[in-house]
Structure formats: C-alpha cells, structure tokens
Amino acid sequence: MKIFTRHPDAENLSAYAAHTPDDAERVAIAGHLEQCTSCRETVKLLRQVTDLENQALDEPAPEDLLARIAASRAAGARAILPIADPVPARPRRLAVAAGLAIAATIAVVFVSTRSVSAGSRTGNMRFEPVAPQPGQLVHVRYEPSAPLARYDSLVLRARFRRPVDGEYNEGPVQRRVGTMRRSGDEFTLAFRLPDSVVFAVFAVESPGGDVLDDNDQQLWELVTADETGKPLYDALGQKTRDMMGRNWEGALRNTRTLAALYPDDPGALGTVVLYEHWVLGDHVADSLLPAHRKRFAALQAALGEKRDLSAAIMGGMAFFARELDDSVAARFWNGRLAASFPNDPQVLFREETRLAEQYIKTQKDPRGFYRTLETNPAYFEQLESVWQRLEPTHDRLMWLVAQNAVARATTAGDTAHLRVWAERFRRLRTDVIGSDAWMGRELLQYPTLRDTAMSWLRDGVRLLAEGPDAYRPLTATVADQQQTNRARMQPILANLGRALIDNGVPAAGLDTLRLAASYGWNPQVLRSVAQALMARGDTAAALQSYARVVADPGTSVALKDSIRAFVPQGGGENWARLVKDAAQEMRHNVLQRAAPRSLGGPLRLQTKSGETRRLADVINGKVTVVMFWSPYCGFSLQPLHDLELLHERLAGQGAQVVTIVDQPFSKDVDEALRVWNAGRLPVLYDFRSDAHRAFASFATPDYYVLDSDGRVIFAHTSLDALPRQVAAGGSRHSLTLHSPSPHGEGRRYATEKPFSVRPPEPRVDRDAPVPAAAASRLARA
User: Fold this and answer.
1) Are 261 and 103 in contact (CB under 8 A)?
2) Considering just the CA atoms, what is the radius of gyration of the chain in Å?
3) Over 225-258, what HEC string results?
4) How far apart are CA 500 and CA 173, in angstroms?
5) Which helix (DSSP H) or strand (DSSP E) does residue 286 occupy?
6) Which of 8, 222, 331, 563 could in theory staple to 200 by disulfide, Cβ–Cβ 3.0 to 4.6 A?
C-alpha cells in the first residue's frame, strides 16, 4: 500500500475527489486525509468545483447574466460571491483554481471593489458604474472608517494606469482626484475617468493627509469594461502590473481571470504559467503544466499556419511556449516574429540576450547565481546597433537593456561605455526615485566619473527633499512619506559625503555626513562620521560617534574591539559614559518610529510535523522577530543565514526569531534552508493564511518586530534594523508611554517592500529600482 509521507500532490487529490484511484492508493490518501485538514478541504473544494462545472454544462449561463450582475451591484447588492479579506491562495487549492475561474470570472472582477466592511478601521467605497468605460463619468460613494468619520470633507487619491504603463508603481504616478463632500453618512464625488485610463486604484485621506484609509493596504479598484460590460484586456493586464510587488497572490488570481475571459490570447495564458511558478513554486506549478500544454496545442493548431498574425499574437505564442519549456515551438514563433516584425521590441530585447550569451562569459556559484568572468568589447559594439533600432519604439522596457549594459560595463571596468549607458539609463528612469542614487553610486568608484556621479547624487537628494505628492504612495500619509524620504536620503548623503572627502573637500564632506547621520540611526553612517572626524584630528567628537557605533546591538564584537583601541588610556570611565548615553539615544531614536498595533484573528500556524500552533503560543512572552519568506524568492533566501545567526544571538537575551513560509513543507523548503546555511532557523507554515491576513503581508521578504505581548511594534522593517528594534522594543514600559500612530489602531508606517521574485540575474544591484530577473521575463510577455 502506498504511504504518503508528505501531502499528496494535486494530481492524486484530484483523482481522489473524482473517485478514480485504485483501491490501494485510495486507502492511502484516505489515511492521510484523516490527519490533514488542509488536504481534506482541498478535496472538498475539488468536488465543489466539479459540481459547478457539471451544472454549468447542464445549464448554460443566461445571456443577460453579466448585465444583471452589474445592475445588482449598482442597486447596492453586496454579495455576488462570498466575500472575505484577501487571502493568499494555498498551492493545492490553486491547483484547481483555473477551473473555478471559468465559473466565477465575471463575479470576481466586480467583487474587487470590496463593499463589505472589515471593521471601523476601513470604510466602504462604491463606484457607479461599477465597470465604466474609459472616458466615462464615475460617481463615488464612500462610507468612512472611524478615524475619517469626523471630517466634513475628504480627499480621494488615485493611481491611474494606461495600457502602456509598466510593472510596479514607480515614479510620479499618484494623483489627487478631488475633494469628497459629506452627504449624510457618506462622502460623494463625481469625476470623469481619462480616456487613456483602463485601470485605477483609490485611497481616501483627511485634508491634511495625516489620516488614511487604504482598505487595509489593498486599495479600492476600478476595472474598465467594454460596452457589453466585459472587463477590458488592457484593464486586467494593468491590474496585474499594479499588483506586482504588493500582492503576488492577487496578481496570480487576476492573471487567471484574464485568461478565463480571453482564452484565445496566448500572452494571457503564458502569463498564468509565469505567475504560477512565481507564486506556487515549481513543484506545484509543474503539476499544472499538462492542462496548459493542451491549451497551447489547441492554439498551435489554430494559428500555426495562419497568415497575417499580429506581433502581439506571435510574441504571445513564443512567450507561452517558453514558459512551457517548449524550445521547438518557441524557436518557431520567435522566427516568425523576427521575420515579420524585425524591429519589434521583443525581437530586439532577445537580440540583447543573445549578444550577452555570445560575448560574456559567466559561471554559476554553488547557490545557483551567475558570476560574470569576462565581457568582450564586441558586446557593446553590437549592442549599439540594436539600441539604434530599439530607441525609436519608445518601449517601456528600454531601460532594462540600458541597465544590463551598465552592469556589463561596470563588471568590465569600461568607463567609456559606462558613461554612455549610464546616461541612457538615467534619462529613461529620471522620474523614478532611487535611480539617481543607484547610478551615482555605481559611478563613484571611477575617478573620471566622480563629478558626474556626485551631480546625480545631489539630484536624487533634491527630489527626495522636495517630496512631490505625486510620488507619495496611496498607502502612505504625508508624515509616512517624509520619514521614508529621509531614510532614502541617508545613504545617498553618506555616499556624497565620502565622495567629497575623497575629492579633497573634507569640511563639506563631514557636514554632509553629519546631515546623513541626523536622518536616522545608521551605524555605517556614524562610523563614516567618526572616521572623518578622526582624520581631521577631532578625537573627542570622533569618540562620540564611535560610541554610537559600539552602542548599536548589531555591531560585531570584532569591530567594537577595534574601536576601543582609539580610546585614550585612562579614559575608560568617560568612554563607558559615552557608550551608555549613546545606547539611550539609540533607543529613543528607534522608538520614535514604533507604531504599536494588536493582531486579530486565530493566527494558526503549522509545524513541519503537521502540528497546529497559535502565534501567541509561539511568542510565549518573548520579544519576537517575524519574517515572511518564500523558497522561490531570491531576496528571501539571501538573508536566511544572517537571520539564523540573529536568532542564536537573541536566544541569550530572551528574544527569538520566527520565520513564516508561504509554501507547505517540502524538499524545496528543506533545500533552501540547507543551501543558505539556515537549518536551525525556526520555520512555520501559514497553512490557512491567518498570518498573512493579520499582518497584512503580501510580499516577501517582510520583517516585523513583536513585543512580549504579541503586539506589532515595527512593521515592514529591514534586516539591519532588527537588532536595534528588538533592543528598543524589549521594554513594555517604553512602548506604553510611546504615543500611538495618529491613524488609529491598525495603521502602519508605509515603507517600500522588497520585490518577491526569483534569484536575481548577475550584476543586478538590490537597490536597483526593479529586479531585472522579474522584468526580463515580463519583457518577453
């Protein structure tokens, strides 16, 4: 008899739900189901889907179904489907979601406006019409959350998306729609959707921008439709792009909706495969490939001999084939696309990839990342001709070609080509915060480019200091964004200060470093200040900065010992006082950014042995660092070993680290922990997505610090800040005295979260505006 030591895969569960396995396998699965709630619910859902599909076959949907749904929404109906908070889908359930999407696609689109209240911290927003056409007049009604109910007027902000807009939400993409006026218990506003806009998301805030309702970070959505009410292809495509980096599971659900509504579009179908691998992992996604291959075969039969196909269809077929690992079909469609549209951006982008493969030598390290060994100058010569053909297209991903070239030139130490491609990249990304800082830092290491680099760094600081409101995310208050901008300015100012000192302007460099240090506690910046002061001969001031470095709990013992060598003999008592004062300063500085809030819900987690544990029991009265991660996210894997070391260090202080993985325990999770040397790191599985909902975490990696009572003290924080935040947040008394966030219980400080993508390509800096690994694959979509 077969015994399942792990969960049965999607194919086995589907067979069991359909009553098709042989007796021995059925007994084995049944034995597993007796112990596993997750798999029992999956089988139940599979059978419900089967019933829905059978019913749909027997009773075709009425032709006026969509119109009736839209009419009921406009009349105030609130439940087309059961509505709940967004739930990151579990892999085994997602294995059957493609079938379920067909039955529920239209309803899912309209439920996205989420009209059921999640409690006093969020309000309700309704649009009329619920699915407008571009250029149509839209009426908005908003029932306020408790913190916003006291105002007479509110501000509606939006992010409008056009068909040509790219992934993520970078640059000055937010706008003020208008002022909502009170009408009884509601606030109302009418505005005309611009003709070019196909998708939009909204948030509401107080007139001063200090109190915000962002629908628990999920925002309110408006998906445009055609004259029949069918959501536009571009609208759903832009919804997926908008969700990148903020809600990967929601993006997957949306790609499935798009594919269900446009089943003959190969690009939509290929995107589903792409997102299934990103979100579900290779093991689960691979089990879904047979159904995708059947769809591809049907499209191949219909389109293979057809003439006069558009570039979008040819490129979509090539993309779909690549995602299915069908190299023969991919070559066929790439050849047709190149022959018919030689200057198509997708063709030119692939040409850059071919040049890199031909002229750049790379090898993989043991963890699977690429290391560049040599760059042939012919790469840049050939790339220039590609660029001259690509530039007139004004394609949205031209910047990726430029970024790749910058990385190649940096690796080769080729300053001539670095100058050319850096300027091109900057021109294409000039409105993206962080681009100037990234490019400036890349150029600083070359003396001949230092003046240019410093100029770009100053431009980056200037933009952050001005802080145009169009750059403020919909999930951030004015104060949130000011704080975020200061944090972003700090490393730029530090780089600029060090560059000034290297350029022979020590006084200006020191002033710039001191300004950087004033923007938040950063031991690296403080150490640079101390070094500059010591070089100037100001030992007393240098020791004050060095004391701050020593007081930081994240500073290594070796560095502390080396700093103590600067302490004058006989000055031990004064040094001890400096360190003690610095520790109090550090704690006060860190607590200024605390935003305590309680967590709600059952918060059930699963151990590797299958035991269910509550988060409160895991915390057990300890200050706890919580990290959300995924074995398929490269940025999640890199910090695992450091996190394990932090866990071991905190154990001696009565604190701990707990990681929460978004996939079931499997060999992939075990392998990730082994390869990244984190085998002793505590790992729990969020098998019911309780933690994702309670923490409002929709991207990985994501870090939180909880106090001993289980309250979130710091949310969406960073790895390097964790030791300080644990040390500062360990005192219950200090947090009781700290003033809560003005947004009310449950509001959090908005920070830019790292992107959840697979391990990055070679020479791509983590501080680059967008991970190239994600963008390069999407460029082929």
Assistant:
1) no
2) 27
3) ECCCCCECHHHHHHHHHHHCCCCHHHHHHHHHHH
4) 34
5) helix 282-287
6) 222
Query: pTM for this one?
Result: 0.70
CB neighbour burial string for 171-198, b if at least 16 within 10 angstroms, e if fewer: bebbbebeebeeeeebbebeeebeeebb
What is the sign of the dihedral through the CA atoms of 238, 240, 245 and 246?
A: positive
Only one residue has tokens 């993985």, namely 661
Q: Residue 369 CB: number of other CB atoms within 10 A?
A: 14
Evaluate if residue 636 carries a pLDDT over 70.
Answer: yes
- Is the backbone of residue 434 left (phi > 0), alpha (psi -120 to 50) or beta? left
CA nearest neighbour of 662 among 289, 278, 215, 270? 278
Q: Which residue has the tokens 């707990």?
A: 658
> Which tokens go with 762?
């070679």
Instruction: Tell me how far apart the alpha carbons of residues 174 and 470 are, in angstroms, rounded to a whole number.
Output: 5
CA distance 415 to 10: 53
Beta bridge partners of residue 598, listed in sequence order: none
Q: How far apart are CA 221 and CA 631, in angstroms?
A: 30
* CA 452 to each of CA 351, 428, 448: distance values in angstroms, whole numbers, following the listed order: 30, 17, 9
Tokens standing for 118? 């999640």
Q: Which three-class secondary structure state does DSSP give residue 652?
A: coil
pLDDT at 694: 86
Spatial neighbors of 674 by CB under 8 A, at least 6 apart, are: none
Tell me which amino acid residue 84 is: A
Find, among 310, 118, 325, 136, the residue nearest to 223 by Cα: 136
Q: Which position has the token pair 């107080």?
A: 206
Q: How far apart are CA 724 and CA 590, in angstroms?
A: 7
What is the identity of the amino acid at 685? Answer: Y
Buried b (16+ CB within 10 A) or exposed e, 302-334: ebeeeeebebebbbbbbbbbbbbebeebbebbb
